[in-house]
Task: structure prediction
Amino acid sequence: MLFTAFWAAGMHQLSLGRPEEAVYNPVSSLNHAQQYTVDQGRPLGLTSEAGFELILAHGYLGLAREMCGNDDDQYDRAIRAFEEGFEKYPELADDYRFGIAQLQWAREQLLID
Result:
């Protein structure tokens, strides 16, 4: 699961305040999460059907873009995709709640005004 390695590298760079340098890693993480999603037989896209890994990758890429000053709603769409999955996929609800908590915590830590 290479998406995890790229996620970790991106988070490290984001935590150092280097969002422009970090964007490569969330993009790479997203690319690998897309392949993992396809391999699992799930659809691509930023929807609850795509699964935890792909939604989380989208959320972190949205966060990195936001830190670069990009006015994109990818982070918010990832949160919504997790929320929409609560009822559709009750067996994944705990994972989806964890994904939301993880993204919100990262955002709070990284986007200090």
About this structure: The chain is about 75% helix and 0% strand. Residues 2-110 form one domain.
